[in-house]
Amino acid sequence: MRYIRYFCIAIFAVALIAVAMANRNMVSLQVLPGEISSLFAVNPSVELPLFIVILGSILAGLLVGFVWEWIREYGERAEAAKQAREMRRLEREIARLKAEKHEGKDEVLALLDEAS
Fold first, then answer.
1. Mean pLDDT, 10 residues at a time, over the chain (116 residues)?
2. 0.70 cut: is pTM over it?
3. Considering just the CA atoms, what is the radius of gyration of the chain in Å?
4. 29 in any annotated domain
């Protein structure tokens, strides 16, 4: 199974390298549209190879998706934590009730009662 994973990673790496080699041309990336940049009298732009723009966009999309899912699953994580706290509380209560039940009994008989 490990070799299959390495093979898939290698294929993915070759595909990324092929995309990078095919898109080496320089492109001008403007941060603001022309209408908005004229209002602020700034025109920030940068020259980058196209593959950096493509791979950077993919990375930015992945990060936005991960953050979106983390925020979306907050309610489920909070409910799971609440249930875990409740389970620990109930386990402590069960242990306390068992201790009260066997209070004043012979230790051997109490162990036998707990086992059954």
1. 92 90 89 79 84 91 96 94 97 87 71 70
2. no
3. 31
4. yes
